[in-house]
Amino acid sequence: MAQLKVTLVRSVIGRPQKQREIVKGLGLGRVHSSVIVPDNVAMRGAIRKINHLVDVELAK
């Protein structure tokens, strides 16, 4: 199964609470932190809600 590397590139300061919860739920903490997540429909939906805050690439 493919995996995605998600990196937080913008701060969540001043963002709506729902977006903060999504970032925390993905396991991202500080700016420039990264996590590897499975490439499935649920993760893509979460990433889509915060796509302006993160950078996504295929994990190796």
Automatic annotation (TrEMBL):
GO terms for cellular component: cytosolic large ribosomal subunit. Residues 4-54 form the Large ribosomal subunit protein uL30-like ferredoxin-like fold domain. It comes from the Bacteria. One of its GO terms (molecular function) is structural constituent of ribosome. One of its GO terms (biological process) is translation. InterPro entries: Ribo_uL30_ferredoxin-like_sf, Ribosomal_uL30_bac-type, Ribosomal_uL30_ferredoxin-like. The keyword Ribonucleoprotein applies. Keywords: Ribonucleoprotein, Ribosomal protein. Part of the 50S ribosomal subunit. Belongs to the universal ribosomal protein uL30 family. This is Large ribosomal subunit protein uL30. It comes from Ligilactobacillus araffinosus DSM 20653. The lineage of its organism: Bacteria, Bacillati, Bacillota, Bacilli, Lactobacillales.
